[in-house]
Amino acid sequence: MVTASAVAVVGAAALAGWWSAQAGEPSGNAAAPAVTGPASATPSAAPITGQTSVPDPALPAPKVNMDIAHATESGGKAVNITIDDGPDPVWTPKVLQILRDNGVKAVFCMIGPQAAAHPEVVKQVVADGHRLCDHTVSHNTAMDHRPDDYQRHQVLDAADQITQASGGVRPMYYRAPGGAFTPYSRQIAAAAGMRPLGWNVDSKDFQKPGVGAIERTVRKELRNGPTVLFHDGGGNRAQTVAALRDLLPWLKQQGYTFSFPVR
Predict the structure, then answer these.
(1) Which residues are known catalytic residues?
(2) CA-to-CA distance for 199 and 227, rounded, in angstroms?
(3) Above 90 in pLDDT, residue 188?
(4) Residue 136 contacts residue 143 (beta carbons within 8 Å)
(5) pLDDT band at 45 (very low <50, low <70, confident <90, very high)
(6) What positions does the domain NodB homology occupy (predicted)?
(7) What is the mean pLDDT of the segment spanning 148-164?
(8) For 199-220, what is the mean pLDDT?
(9) CATH number of the domain at 14-27+59-259, out of 3.20.20.370, 3.40.640.10, 3.20.20.20, 3.40.50.1820?
């Protein structure tokens, strides 16, 4: 489940230029004081190109950029399709089929226990060429108010569950439930090789407002940026499936291509 507050809000800048500029955008929490981690300090690492967040030297050093990603790898007029809260044995295969029919690759942000319960679905996601994203163990949208140790287990335990379910393919991204990122959780994720991943367009499909409403929201909000959020878990996702069936061809007709988020 997501909240509207986590969606990036932009002005009237040119579309392609604005999206490209988001590659190194930090989260709203990036200026907050660093959270103290384990007592043993780790050696400082070389700066990561484009990263604006300042890592806490007491924590493991980031292996990838710890700023929240929004931009596409390809740049230009492209979108990132991201799918949250699965895998689901009923709805994820339906989403996969629509993506397959349209030649589109996406990022699947998976809840750890869901992945562990449905490894065959996780393996199919990987086999189809999509990327994996860690969406924590418990999907606690208030985890930014929980202790560091709780956040660490939510992030790293889910990554292990997803990796095991996939047959050894590790998540490339980390998306906090409801956008509840903290500097601590972002650095812990980045130290494990997972780029924090935000979104620009919330399709509002989680609320099941109707297929037409989902489609109108996406078309209207695309001006905000390229990363679009849908759901394949958390209940009946028939509306999401139907909306994707319409939206993917429409996006192509509008001249959009499909990409993965920057790393």
Answers:
(1) 84, 231
(2) 5
(3) yes
(4) yes
(5) low
(6) 77-259
(7) 99
(8) 98
(9) 3.20.20.370
